[in-house]
Amino acid sequence: MSPEDRTALATAVDSVVAGAGEGAAAALRSLLTRSDAAIATWDTDLRCTWVNDALERYDGIPRARRLGRPPQEALAGDASEPAAVMRRVLSTGENVTGLEYRVPAAGTGRDRALSASFLHLRDAAGRTLGVCLVVEEKSPWAGDRLAVVSEAGARIGTTLDVMRTAQELADFTVPLFADYVTVDLTEAARLGEEPLDRYGLSEGRVPTFRRAGRASIHPGAPESLWTTGDVVYVPRPSPFLQVLSSGRPLLEPTLDPASDAWLDNDPARARKIIEFGMHSLLILPVLARGILLGVAVFVRTENPAPFNERDQLLAEELVARAALSLDNARRYTRERTTALALQHSLLPRHVDGGSAMDVVARYLPADGRGSVGGDWFDVITLPRGRLALVVGDVVGHGIDAAATMGRLRTAVRTLADFDLPPGELLTRLDRTFIRLVEDDEAAGDAVPSMGATCVYAVYDPATRTCSVASAGHPPPAVVRPGGGASFLDVPQGTPLGVGLAPYETAESEVAPGSLLALYSDGLVEERYEDIDKGMRRVREILGRREESLEDLARGLIGSLPAQVPDDDVTLLLARVLQPGHSPSTPRTNPLPNFPSGSNARARDRKSSSRG
Q1: What's the pTM?
Q2: Where are the beta strands (DSSP E) in 189-316?
Q3: From 3.20.20.70, 2.60.40.10, 3.30.450.20, 3.50.50.60, which CATH number describes the 3-137 domain?
Q4: How many angstroms separate the CA atoms of 547 and 528, rounded?
Q5: Quick one: which H or E segment has residue 115?
Q6: pLDDT tens for residues 155-175?
Q7: What are the pLDDT digits (tens) for 306-362?
Q8: Domain 145-332: what homologous superfamily?
Q9: CATH number of 347-606
């Protein structure tokens, strides 16, 4: 309460105590009785003469037990200091504000910090009438609002996951601001789609919402009718739809199930309100760039102070910050889903080694802030029974990287039709890539990808040799019969797009039963693991050559140090078949499904096949 508010309040109480005109006094008394601030008055003998309803909500003492009693009997807790302050106010005529006063919170067994102000009461002639006590909740954030908002910025929006961000908002505001909080998002926002700017009730439809976050002072949030991820029932009419329709907050300082008609259509929610003593409600739209993403609901139960306009202002700041993070996460989800869909359409659905090789491929998209990358793989049948194995990695992430990947994969397949040696094919691919970039620049298009790496290997069953060339890509691994795993000695060359071709071709003997492994750097490079350690890990797992290709692929993917890889992981395993043999099983490219997050990633890591 500001000094100006205290002065106005003291004047109003003066009028009531001094006996203003009967009509005016009755109106003022009614106003003060229904005030959110807890107010009581004492006469010059420090006997309680009047108290409003709000004070009982703070400490549970009914009005009848206060009237006519001194502070030590009329106030909860140790009232010796408030009594001393009242005597000082009567003696000096000076107001005292901001005294911290702790009382047992009704029915909780915990203390509650209150801020008490003591106002000197006088009549029109200046004679002392007594003291007015004004009690307000001492909010943890009241002293430093900016610090709370700053802390919210650090703790809300730590990931690009929509559901996680909603939960962070709920967690941050309980118990700091509310006793129970829910965040419900539109289905469109949750899936990364574009929601409406607002919802019109006249259309006769209620949008689908899902519970994205919830937090409570009670473990497990028993107040909630829905768990995270559930579809939330939105009754018609209700304050929730009112907020959705108007796009404006709704503050209901006193929540009364008996008088709120909208609860007649929602008896389950009404029972929860009564069971947990929900007495104050604040509903805010979650808005970003004018787009309505959902609603945030703040409720007080054990905290006796009703929400006020100052609380609403703070909540609006916190929700606005969360909304920006949610919008970023939503847009990221949309872009990532689109990029995955594009990548899904561009990568081969089947890998077929024919009679020359048994082939297995794995692709694991990154799930961090980098979004989907531009990894690709391919198996190309060449004349005379030969087989080309390709793995590439476009620099950059997102839709642009996926599109560039598709163009490069098409270019490799086109060049492979000319039956070129690997080194010459990469040399021409480098020139093609440079022309593509130049064409994009000439057309005024952005060029987000600055280059790409690629390894191209050709196995010839007639000569039992493998010819390999690399454009800045990690070397293939080979496991020969009777020997351990090693990496082929292949000149790396520069990445595609640099323009420093030509590339050299290295040739190695590869006997039947040998295993070749082509992969992207995501398999051997991690943020907290150097590449040498990653390559040792790959070599050790590939050394278990008696395992099936499926088991080896599962072991390599499962060996990644991070549960959520920072970069895409692409793996192509090819085992040279004995003449006359055929692959043990048909191979379908196990491209990932679209769900993201650590749960989906854990499932991918545990499964031997994702397709």
Answers
A1: 0.61
A2: 209-216, 231-232, 250-252, 280-288, 291-300
A3: 3.30.450.20
A4: 29
A5: strand 111-122
A6: 999 988 899 999 999 999 999
A7: 888 889 999 999 999 999 999 998 887 777 777 777 767 777 877 889 899 999 999
A8: GAF domain (3.30.450.40)
A9: 3.60.40.10
